[in-house]
Known about the structure:
globular
Amino acid sequence: MKHPRIGLALALTVAVGMAPATAQTCRDDIKATAPDSRFTDNGNGTVTDRATGLIWKQCAEGLSGAGCATGSVEAFTWQAALQRAADADFAGSSLWRLPNKNELASLIERRCYDPAINARFFPNTPSSWFWSSSPHAGDSSRAWYVDFYGGFVDNYGKDDAGYVRLVRGGQ
C-alpha cells in the first residue's frame, strides 16, 4: 500500500515542479530536542550534528541550493534508496549512506510538526517519511522509516516509495 501523504506530496511536486512547501508549527513551551545549538552548517550543503558526530546532507535527495529550494524532492523504493546512497558523491566525499533508524530518528524535533525537524538546518524538508537502512527483523519485505510530519518511527514495504536524507560518519 502506498503512503497517502507521500502520494499527495509527489503529485504536488510533479504538478508545480518544485518541492512541497512546509508550514512548520512549533510549541515554544516544550524544550527543543534538536536545538540550533546542536548543529553546525558546514557551508557546503552539509550539516554536522555535534551531539552524534554525524554529518548530514542538508537537503533531501532531489533538492539542492540555498534553502534546499532548487529541484524536486525524489522518492525511492528501499533498494533504490540504498543504491542512491552507495552512488552518492557530494561535498568531496563518497562515504554517504542511508542512516539507520536510530540515527534518522535523532533528527526529530519533538516540539514541532509539519515537519518535525529543525527547519533552520534542514530547510524545505517534506512533511513525510524517509527511509532508514534498517530492515524489519520480523518481515524481510519491510524496512523502517521516520515520518517527519509528526515525528514517529514505523515500517513499510520495501517496494513503497519514500524520501531519502543521506548521512556519513558514525555507525
